[in-house]
Amino acid sequence: MSRSKGSIDVLLLVIVAVIVLFGLVMLLSASAPSGYSQFADSYYYVKHQMIFGLIPGIGAMVAFARIPYTFWRKHAWNLLLLSIVLLVLVFIPGLSAGIGTARSWISVGGVFSLQPSEVVKLTFLFYLAAWLAQRDKHSVRDVQAGFLPFVFVLGTIMLLMILQPDIGTMSIIAAMSLVVYFVAGAPISYVLGLIAAGVAGLLALITAAPYRAARFTTFLHPELDPQGIGYHINQALLAIGSGGIFGVGYGHSRQKFQYLPEVASDSIFAVIGEEMGFMVAALTIGLFLLFLWRILEIAKRSPDSFGKYVVVGVGAWIVIQAFVNIGSMVALMPITGVPLPFISYGGTSLAISLAAVGVVLNVSKSMK
């Protein structure tokens, strides 16, 4: 697909539009029983996704596609402060709202809710890209000028997320940051060392919290306690397995009828596998790989290092999160509670993801 100088990358926009529309179609089916059971409205989740996610997200994507991406570089320090403030707000009584075991939301008047960690994915990425763009590869490789400041700032963000706790989103931000750090010229030994430290830290967190230890044990042995802690992964595997090659048919999932937990959000890929089968589930994965390919093409032709790092960061964030979610549904990874980008229910996640795509589209206007 050809494009003229100064125009957005239409192919990326089409790929994202296809994923989002497919997500709405699957959310309509997956969430209908839960919506009717909880709110007497089968369309409750879809309507909320459109009102609080899709419409604001499209508005943000259009706006961010028009704002010169260099604007975010000029305000990088303010964006870091904003990231920290947003993560602190979840600890303030009256604003803090809990979902599940994590208090990672803020609620205003019981009407409007926001997950700050989703916003921080983008604001922290702007700061990190700007910070790295100011340094040459020698400075990035230097322990005092590059490594230690990187570890300190990322560690601060991670600590605030551990306290919530929101380990899933924290892991996505950490992985995204390491990818950008490596692309900026960090030695592979630094990255591998930080990964090893991160794995050790995760094991410590798992050991410290019984529910995390139970999740990890279930990941290793899904057959244990199928009616207890192993219920979620077993129901997900049952859903995907019963779909076969071509699925049981759109709208005909059995697991969505109060059997599969978090059916509209974290577990929606299991419903895709059950209703649409292996072929469509594989095509869904293919769409994210196609998204990654287009992101890398834009990154390679970005006009400067800041634009390159932002584009790479968005690609790493979306694709890593997608594969963490999908991996948890097929028992390749422990269940972490992160949504499937562009598809799972979650207004904040969808809106911020579309805003990030808008930034990438703006960078694409200046591609070499």
Terminal CA distance:
16 Å
Following the backbone from N to C, one meets helices and strands in this order, namely HHHHHEEEHHHHHHHHHH
Helix content: 55-70%
Say what oligomer this is: single chain
**Arrangement of strands in the largest sheet:** 1-2-3
Kindly name the structural category: mainly alpha
Dominant shape: globular
What value does the Rg take, in angstroms?
A: 20 Å
Mean pLDDT: 88
Q: Kindly estimate the percentage of residues that lie in beta strands according to DSSP.
A: under 5%
Number of helices: 15
Largest sheet: 3 strands, antiparallel
Strand runs, count: 3
The low-confidence runs, each spanning 5 or more residues with pLDDT under 50, are none
Number of domains: 1
Please sum up the structure shown.
This protein has 368 residues and is mainly alpha-helical.
Would you mind describing this structure in some detail?
- The protein has 368 residues and is mainly alpha-helical.
- The protein has one domain.
- It has 15 helices and three strands.
- The protein has helices at residues 10-30, 32-39, 44-66, 70-74, 76-89, 116-133, 137-141, 143-162, 167-183, 188-208, 210-220, 231-243, 268-300, 305-329, 347-365; strands spanning 96-99, 102-108, 112-114.
- Strands 1-2-3 form a three-stranded antiparallel sheet, with no helix packed on it.
